[in-house]
Amino acid sequence: MPDKPEKKTLKRRNALGKGLGALLGDSNKAESTSSSTSEKETEAVSVNIVEKLDEIAVEHIDRNPFQPRLEFQDEALRELADSIRVQGIIQPITVRKLTENQYQIISGERRWRASKMAGLEKIPAYVRGANDTQMLEMALIENIQREDLNPIEVAISYQRLIAECDLKQEELGDRVGKKRSTVANYLRLLKLPPEIQSGLRKGTISMGHARALVNVNSIEVQLALFDMIVKNELSVRKTENLVRDVIQGKDLVNNKTAQKNQPLDFEFSRLQRDLSTHFGTQIKIKNSSEGKGEIKIPYQSVEDLNRILDILKTH
Q1: Is 61 strand, coil or helix?
Q2: 172: Cβ contacts below 8 Å, ≥ 6 apart
């Protein structure tokens, strides 16, 4: 007699190691054959997740308290809302049921927000069972694997998974499909001062710049180098060379790159940071040896510009 097919089982750790698709049973393949559906249901049960597709009133859905994404761009949401008005919801969101008429988002908060903006009353959603720990893991891993979080949001997500799910860096690396060294590099970013973290969030500097700056022990020197990078649009390689010179104790005044790219002096650097904090955007001050200069106040959208103008009007 031929051997019976071996029954597939799925350990929870392996599911997470394969990514959110394995953990959720891959909701993107909802139209698979009945045999593959049965297999996914077996996997879902093994991680204590039950799935069904339903139409749920938008007003009965709450945002995910474990959402790692800290910023939702208004323009991108409007574009998605316009698409939803024309095409509808192509990919359902995923929620868990709290009470009879109350649900909480596991993944798909952008689609939910855009649907509300588009005026939809109901939205298609996969309803799954999940406890708080599973919610946290699924929300963080789903966002990390979309690769559109900024480095600080990724770092915070890693930190939360380690702290709240009691994981070691090696275990976290397995679950998100990253090397331990990669996880460690992201976590080190959280040691940078808020001004530099803000620059990393907004894309003022890159992950490469930040990885170089984190090797400098002095916060004042980190901030001075950060100002130099932004003012002179230094490449990652030039930044690494400057950081290496600082670590080796070389005088930046005698450094050829530094001669061409002197940072603002302490008073101007402090003023630049204070203004950036006050206006909620990365202010740039350029100052010449003659005492002339300019202040640049960037804005991300018309709404952001109006916000800045309101601040100016109150002073």
Answers
A1: strand
A2: 158, 161, 162, 178, 183
Question: Under CATH, which number does the domain 12-184 receive?
Answer: 3.90.1530.10
Q: Which H or E element spans position 55? A: strand 51-57
Q: Which amino acid is at 29?
A: K
Q: pTM here?
A: 0.53
- Catalytic annotation present for 109: yes
Instruction: List the catalytic residue out of 43, 51, 109, 137.
Output: 109
Per-residue pLDDT of the chain (315 residues; tens, 9 = 90+): 445 444 443 333 333 344 444 444 443 433 333 333 333 333 333 344 446 788 999 999 988 776 666 667 778 888 888 998 888 888 898 898 888 888 998 888 888 989 999 999 999 999 988 777 777 777 777 767 665 678 988 888 888 888 877 888 888 888 878 888 999 999 999 999 999 999 998 889 999 999 999 999 889 889 989 988 988 889 999 999 989 988 887 655 445 444 444 445 656 777 877 788 788 888 888 776 666 788 888 888 888 888 888 888 876
| Encoded tokens for 254 | 């005698």
Residues, the chain: 315
Name, in order, each residue with C-beta under 8 angstroms of 174's C-beta and a sequence gap of 6 or more: 13, 16, 17
Q: Which residues contact 256 (CB under 8 A, 6 or more apart)?
A: none
- 127: helix, strand or coil: strand
Strand partners, 53: 126
Helix (H, G, I), strand (E, B), or coil: what is residue 52?
Answer: strand
Q: Where are the domains of the chain?
A: 12-184, 198-313
What residue ranges in 78-200 does DSSP mark as E strands? 93-99, 102-107, 122-128
What is the DSSP annotation of 281-301?
Answer: S--EEEE-TTS-EEEE---SS
